Amino acid sequence: MLQLHTVHEVGLFGLLIAKIRMHGELTERDVIAIRDAPYSLVDYQRNHRITNFRKVPRSVHVLTSGLACLSIVASDGRRQITRLLLPGDFCNAFDAQPLASLEGIDILVPSRMAAIPDNAFRQISGSVSMQHALFAMVIDAAASARSVIASLGRGDARGRVAFLLCDLAQRMTARGLLSTPGDPLPLRQDHIADATGLTSVHVNRMLAQLRQEGLVSGGGTIVQIADVTGLRVAAGLQHC
Amino acid sequence: MLQLHTVHEVGLFGLLIAKIRMHGELTERDVIAIRDAPYSLVDYQRNHRITNFRKVPRSVHVLTSGLACLSIVASDGRRQITRLLLPGDFCNAFDAQPLASLEGIDILVPSRMAAIPDNAFRQISGSVSMQHALFAMVIDAAASARSVIASLGRGDARGRVAFLLCDLAQRMTARGLLSTPGDPLPLRQDHIADATGLTSVHVNRMLAQLRQEGLVSGGGTIVQIADVTGLRVAAGLQHC
DNA sequence: CGTGTCGTTGAGGCCTGTCAACCTACGTGG
DNA sequence: CCACGTAGGTTGACAGGCCTCAACGACACG
Hints:
44% helix, globular, 9 helices, DNA-binding
């Protein structure tokens, strides 16, 4: 039985299925429908920005590998990352529906997406169980965004960085993208800066401080969490 | 015909209906179902904080008058408002589902809520049209939260205040709670502070500056927008 | 008239941004 | 093999924005 589940989750959409399952029970039929969905693959290079998927037919894009984000470019030209997109995440629908004409999708690491035609996905998502799970997923995304608001509004630089790392590690671990929260995170310092609203110079200082406190390890380009509990406390919110 | 709509929308749940309608077409049947929903009314005093609605049966709460917010209290004791709740908004479900055990509901102004029993609302929201509208509503809430993230992450104090005022005025105007965006907003300076992550002292200074620039008017407790366009520019994001 | 709430104003200090320089690692081409 | 360029990280000096603390004013209310 467990074996069966595992088999279902190793395909291209395994991570997507795992993610949706975090928010509601899926039937065997749902899982098969997703697994067998028609799709086309698209690769994107690092630093590419997508403001509009000009794909015919219109498609739901799912990140299958790499790392991307939703971001808003302020009028002074600086970018704010509003949400990190991990493999298994939607990129242009549901919990990651970009804010019209304001939010874009930035590719942070060479990535691949699967584009599922809209009408195909509409059929897949028509079942009651899928509707419930997707609904719960979006509700969770909204709540999660509000916790980021709290971190940005109330936290100092150290707390913001700590929160981001905790949050990302938790999401990645839950989806099996990290075997333990202490594994290296796929972030560069300027990604952290764009996500926390800080400058990369100051992020560097904060990481140095967190390393000295024993909460973070890894040098150079590598960021690893050394002490999850301590980092959560540093984040300043009870929860991460 | 228009007359009919108006009649439907003046009841206790008129604002709720108006809000849901912003995100999808409702059938006559949907509207009637909401209008005739069973409910009980509860009044709350200013500064009351609700961390858990202990209501039997469990209920969906809808704000019918006043002003409330979702908020998170950081470990240093300061409060961050993560979302303002206006009359017509849900308070503990859907687009305002509090983050478990972290987010609470604060009453900012003496308010009244209608509590609709869960199972009654489940029936009401079972129709395809309601499902679609509610789904779109939550997706919009998530996107809206991300624009707040951008404002907090990238904006300076002046921009944050400007953004908050624009955003609130737009939401209130869209729902008929303001006749024009220039009407007085129901916010005290410390509410603005808690929503923007600033101190009330600094909010005061920013409001003084915005008044001097001619973007905001009203003295003392009253905050009015004098120049919507100018304030949007000051907010620093293309959109508000 | 006392009390409490909310807004206003000033002085000073800390946190974070800005600017700039340098360093390492890595790949490329002569 | 070495010169060179690029990307990313590290470090220091300095300035400015925002917080803190504190006092005061305006106003409502019992």
